[in-house]
Structure formats: C-alpha cells, structure tokens
Task: inverse folding
C-alpha cells in the first residue's frame, strides 16, 4: 500500500480518479485489488486540507464499504495496513449518510480491529493486541519468555473473556481454530499459497498473497478408460489451459510415489477439487506441488478406505510440478505476496521450491526486521518424494495386516465369493488377536504413546495393550520434552511387583481444570489415583497471589530410600509466571516433600552424597530474581519451604516456611546474559565420587532446540559440593569469538568460578550446608 500523499490535488484530478475508482469497483476484479485502489484514493483524499469540501466523495462510495471489508479477518494482512483501512472507515463513519449506515460502519470497525489484533497476535505482539482490545489496564507483564504465540493468544482470550470484551466474539473462533491446528493432520485438505494477480491490471503493482484451502475427493474410474478426469469447483468441463495441465501433472506425480501395486498407480481416477477462495489465482502452475501432495494422500486413503495419510494443518506449500514429481520454482513477482500472507497468519511452516528458497528466506528476514518475535519456518523441496518424507508436513500411519484385509473387503464388496472368503479370514484373524483369549501374551506395559484424548500402552514387543481415555483433550505439543526431566509421561514399577504403572502429568495452558494433574494408571489400564497439584498451597509472592494454574513439566521415578518402593519426583510450574516446585510423592500419592523456587527447574538427578543410604535430589535450573543459573541439593526426608532470595520484593514468598534445602548455589552470569535472556543449569551428569552440571543460555536453547550446541560451561563438583574443575565448551568458544571478536579470557574463566553458597542467612564463597537443614535434622 502506498504511503499517504501530501501533494495537493486539484478537484479535476480528484474527480478523474474517483470516476476511475468507481469503474474499478464495478468491475469483476479481485476484492483485494479493489481495496488497493479504494485505500489509495481515500488516503490521498484524507491528506487534503478543508476536508468538508470532499464529503460528497464519502457519500458517493459509502455503499461500497461493507462489501470491500467483507472477509477482512481472513485476509492475512500486515496489521498496520489493516489499521490504515480502519482509519478510512472511521472517516466514513464521521460522515455517514444515515443512522443505520453509522451502525453498519461501527460493526465494520469492530471487524477491522479484530483483524489487526489477530495479525499482531500471529506475529508475537501481544501488547499491541491488548491495546486494540482495550486491555491496557492489564497486570504488569502477563506474558513470559517461555510462552509461544498461541499460548499468549490463549492468555489474552482468557483475560478478554473475563472482561466481556465485545471484540472477543469475532476473534474467538480464529484462536480456537489456531489452537486446534497445532500438531493436527487432516485428510483431504491442504493449504496452498497463491496470489491475487494485480500485475494483470498494472505491471508495476505487487500482488497480494492468499492462503487457499484446496480440498479433494477421489474415486476409481472404470478399467477401460484411458485418462484421469478432473472437476474443479463443480466445473464439469475445464478449459485445457495451464491450470488443467498442472493438475494433471500433479495427479500423475502423486500416483507414481504411492508405493502401491502397479495396477493402482497405472489406473485412472476421477478427482473433484474445490478451492475455498474463488478470487485467488486459479491459473498458472503454482498450485501443482500442493495438488500433487493432496493427490498422493487421496489415492492412498482411497485405496485403504481409511485415513492412513494426513497433511499438517499448520503448514502451507507453493510450487510448480512436473509429471516426474520434480518441484520447479514459482514466479518471483508473486513469491513476496505469498510469504507476506503466510507471515501474518497462524501458519508455522511454509514449503517452497528449492530454487526459491534463498529469496524466500530474504523476504522473511525483511519482515522479521519489523516483527522480530514472529517465527515462520521455511523449508525447501526439490521433489514430491522429498515432501512426503517430511513428518512435519505429512503424517502416515503404519499399514498392518488387518487394515490391508479390511481395505480389500471394502474394495470388493460387490464380489460375493471374495467377500465370504475375506470375511472368514478376518474372523479368524480377529479371533487370534482377541486379547482375553491370548494367555501367552505379555501384558506388562513398557512404553506409552499420547494421542489427542487418550494414552496407548504397549508391551516390550511393541504390541498394543490398552487405551486409557482422559476426560478432556491434550494439547500434544506441550508433551514433547527436550531434556531428561521434561518428559511428562513414563512407565515404571513403583511397588516392586514386576507390573508397571504408567504416570502422566498434564500441562494445559488453556485448561486450568485439566492442567497440573498426575495420573497413575495400572498395568490393566485402570486408574489407580490422580494427584492434583492445584491442591497445594496458594502462593503469594511480593504481596501478589498467583492463580492456581499449574503444569507438570517433568516426571522422574527413583528409589530414594533404598527400599523396594520407588518415589515420584515432579517439576510443577505455574502458568504463565515463575513460581515452580519440586514435589515428591510415594506410590500412594502421599506428599513427602515440596520445595518452591522463583524460577524454572530444568534437570534433576539423584546421588547418595554422604553414604547414608538415602539419595539426595540434585536439581538445576534458574532464578527469575537474577535470571541466572541455580543448583540445589534436597534431602527427601526434609525438603520444604522456598529458595532463598535477596529481597522481600516480587520473588520472595511467606506462603511457605524458610527453605530446608541442604545446599543452594548461585552461578555468575555468562557473557551472553542480557536481562531476561537467562542462563540456566540444563543438565546434570552423575559419576562415582563426582558429578557435572552444564550451564546453557536459555534463549539459545529455546531457539536451537539442540542442547549439545547450547551448553556453555561444565562445572565438576565432588560430593561435598567443592568445585574441582571448570571448562567452557567448543560451541561457547566459537560463539564468543563470533560475537565479541576475541576468545574467552582468563578473567572470564575466573569470574565464572565465583560461585555463591547459601548458609541459611547469607551468601558465602565456600561450600556450606544450610544451617536450617541441620536444625531441622536434629
């Protein structure tokens, strides 16, 4: 969109442009192209002096405004561009011809605010969203650095809902749809990046991008036909142009890579495609790659008469395709518009042709200069075979014998002899796999997998044992831990009876009632008990009470006391703020200990430091008071209270007693510490007579998702917590050289060794046991 003109235009110029605009608005052109000329004209008009002289233009075009603003929430525009349109509509509102038109324009204004709010939310600017929603009186900093864009959206949704915000009704379905699309795979549908081709009207104009949903169904044609048949948007006869041949090429490419028998890939099919946005570019070749992937899944699902392949709901693709499956580049003139549409949408990933990849990355980098909090993954693909190997884009289920037989019966239901034989075979197969009759089968669960609303258990041969259904749906992306302590479900024998239990802790940002629960499921798939972390004390830090909304971030099981029974060690963290604790339960969910920290824990391990037969809990993480690394040693016989703080302000609490930790260590800041870009202890490695803790930079860790590349320092301690060795890693050396231009200095090494130990009242330079642990022990 052009910037506002400041040059004074003559009445003759304005009249000429208004006539041209009216002609454009009455033509059968793209809505976005009409918006372009409409906004251009009225931004010029608003820049003129003596505005009342031009009221007639507002009256002349008033009736066009509702139609022009239809679907603006779905347009995926830059929020600043939406707000420009909002200002124009406001100018119309001030000059509305009737009261009814004023009401209509007020409703349009709400839609435009909602559209801008959603775009700001998609690019990670929740403060701008809060201002647009009129939530400027929010509590201080309702978001933290660990929250994703969707979690911030859900938090704002919760706040707006509590305040009965009028714009909420417009954006509510979009936020819920965004949440549902996370880690979701659908059958028969794919997102494709296309363009509104403005250049066909004027060569100098950049085209707008569109995220188009391409859907399809397929069925087999008779064996004697010699070609595939295509219907698009119920058009029985398609013109044999570039779109027609592009779809034919995509179908041919999709058939070749199904891996099905030759008679399937050589057979001809009847495809019915439909596109959700009729004004998008439905000519040219850039629909090809997406149509090829969709054709592949449609044929596969049709053959097996079940959904065995699904396409990621948070990914879009663009690219041309050849019959051999090679993905060829799209026109560079339209690529920028496509990527802008994806950038201001809830999409998480975009796939582009390999030859467009460098240009695409540059476009995204340019956009991130203005919106640095937006992360949009760009992936390249040179062939359709490469695309189907991408598990972020395509989900394909295993095809077992039962599914193959079942598909065969369904494909041949009109053949009585085959149906009778297959039915008998399936009956025998079902009898052989009917679990109550299989006395020989190992029924002890060894592994578990999570699905949307249930957990599936498997034995050591990976044979399915049972389902356990939860009372609500799981947000699956919250259950993908990246360190040993961040796994929220595991299988373990808690009581030594050689029958495993399954433990799962829920972490649900959008569901306060379902979040923070620990499920104990026995070896038969029945519920033993539920422990609810919300039953813990209400925590008050710095005079502010934190809502009882907790997530279980990690679970470990260990034999802490040298007995046959094991204990459960959990990391329970508030959402979305800093309070968290380590909780220890016995096999019957009795609370053995609960230790609070003003920050997250990232790792935990267990060692008998003094040889008394009881293993201490060694936990590493960070403190939000200093945003630095911390390490604490807890005695499971006496672990209560809260971590030490330097002040009585925001991060101190009197809700629980003084901490009874055995040791507590604070680590100095690394050279990469920047305010809230925290350092943290991310891993503990235990050995005989010593253990090693690894410090990483939290921001690097979250960005790279590769712990090995983010560890900066390794601290080696003996069992008395003396520092016996310190060293920095090769990745730290490389990054230090890259950022600061010099290698790490001896002075830096000396500073990083300056640890602080807590004696119960003060910070000291030497290892010391907390005297309040000693007093409690006596």
Result:
């Amino acid at each position: 969109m052009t910037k506002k003109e400041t040059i004074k235009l003559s009445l003759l110029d304005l009249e000429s442009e208004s006539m041209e605009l009216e002609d454009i608005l009455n033509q059968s052109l793209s809505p976005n192209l009409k918006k372009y000329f409409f906004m251009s004209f009225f931004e010029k008009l608003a820049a003129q002096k003596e505005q009342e002289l031009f009221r007639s233009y507002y009256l002349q075009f008033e009736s066009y405004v509702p139609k022009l603003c239809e679907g603006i929430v779905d347009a995926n525009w830059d929020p600043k561009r939406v707000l420009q349109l909002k200002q124009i509509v406001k100018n119309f509102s001030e000059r509305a011809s009737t009261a009814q038109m004023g009401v209509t324009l007020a409703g349009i204004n709400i839609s435009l605010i909602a559209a801008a709010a959603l775009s700001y939310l998609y690019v990670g600017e929740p403060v701008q969203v809060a201002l647009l929603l009129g939530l400027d009186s929010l509590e201080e900093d309702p978001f933290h650095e660990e929250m994703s864009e969707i979690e911030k959206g859900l938090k704002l949704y919760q706040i707006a809902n509590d305040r009965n915000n009028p714009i909420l009704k417009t954006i509510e379905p979009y936020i819920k749809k965004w949440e549902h699309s996370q880690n979701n795979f659908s059958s028969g549908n794919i997102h494709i990046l296309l363009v509104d081709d403005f250049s066909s009207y004027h060569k100098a104009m950049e085209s707008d991008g569109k995220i188009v949903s391409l859907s399809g169904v397929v069925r087999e044609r008779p064996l004697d036909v010699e070609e595939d048949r295509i219907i698009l948007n119920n058009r029985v006869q398609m013109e044999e142009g570039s779109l027609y041949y592009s779809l034919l090429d995509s179908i041919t490419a999709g058939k070749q890579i199904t891996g099905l028998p030759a008679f399937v890939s050589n057979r001809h099919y009847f495809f019915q495609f439909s596109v959700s946005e009729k004004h998008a570019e439905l000519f040219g070749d850039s629909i090809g790659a997406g149509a090829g992937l969709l054709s592949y899944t449609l044929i596969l699902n049709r053959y097996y008469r079940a959904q065995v392949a699904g396409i990621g709901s948070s990914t879009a693709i663009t690219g041309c395709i050849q019959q051999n499956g090679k993905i060829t580049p799209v026109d560079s003139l339209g690529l920028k518009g496509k990527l802008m549409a994806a950038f201001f949408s809830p999409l998480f990933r975009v796939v582009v042709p390999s030859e467009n990849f460098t240009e695409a990355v540059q476009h995204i980098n340019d956009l991130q200069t203005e919106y640095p909090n937006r992360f949009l993954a760009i992936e390249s693909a040179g062939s359709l075979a490469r695309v189907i190997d991408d598990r972020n884009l395509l989900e394909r289920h295993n095809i077992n014998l039962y599914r193959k037989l079942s598909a065969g019966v369904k494909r041949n239901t009109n053949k009585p002899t085959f149906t009778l034989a297959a039915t008998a075979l399936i009956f025998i197969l079902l009898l052989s796999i009917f679990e109550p009759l299989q006395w020989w089968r190992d029924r002890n669960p060894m592994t578990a997998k999570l699905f949307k609303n249930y957990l599936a258990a498997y034995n050591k041969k990976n044979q399915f044992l049972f389902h356990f259904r939860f009372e609500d749906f799981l947000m699956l992306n919250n259950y993908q831990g990246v360190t040993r302590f961040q796994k929220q479900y595991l299988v373990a024998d808690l009581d030594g009876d050689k029958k495993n239990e399954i433990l799962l802790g829920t972490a649900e940002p959008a569901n306060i009632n379902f979040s923070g629960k620990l499920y104990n499921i026995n070896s038969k798939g029945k519920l033993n008990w539920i422990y609810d972390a919300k039953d813990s004390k209400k925590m008050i830090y710095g005079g502010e009470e934190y809502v009882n909304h907790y997530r279980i971030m990690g679970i470990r099981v260990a034999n802490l006391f040298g007995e046959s029974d094991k204990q459960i060690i959990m990391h329970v963290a508030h959402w979305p703020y800093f309070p968290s604790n380590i909780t220890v339960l016995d096999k019957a969910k009795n609370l053995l200990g609960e230790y609070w920290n003003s920050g997250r824990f990232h790792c935990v391990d267990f060692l008998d430091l003094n040889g008394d037969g009881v293993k201490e809990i060694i936990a590493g993480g960070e403190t939000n008071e200093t945003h630095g690394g911390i390490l604490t040693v807890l005695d499971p016989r006496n672990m209560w209270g809260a971590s030490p703080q330097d002040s009585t302000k925001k991060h101190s609490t009197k809700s629980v007693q003084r901490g009874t930790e055995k040791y507590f260590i604070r680590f100095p800041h690394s050279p990469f510490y920047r305010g809230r870009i925290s350092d943290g202890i991310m891993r503990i490695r235990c050995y005989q007579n010593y253990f090693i803790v690894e410090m990483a930079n939290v921001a690097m860790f979250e960005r790279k998702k590769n712990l090995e590349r983010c560890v900066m320092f390794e601290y080696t301690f003996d069992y008395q917590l003396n520092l016996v060795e310190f060293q920095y890693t090769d990745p730290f050396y490389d990054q230090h050289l890259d950022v600061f231009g010099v290698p790490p200095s001896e002075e830096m090494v000396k500073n990083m060794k300056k640890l602080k130990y807590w004696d119960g009242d003060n910070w000291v330079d030497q290892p010391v046991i907390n005297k309040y642990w000693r007093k409690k022990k006596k």
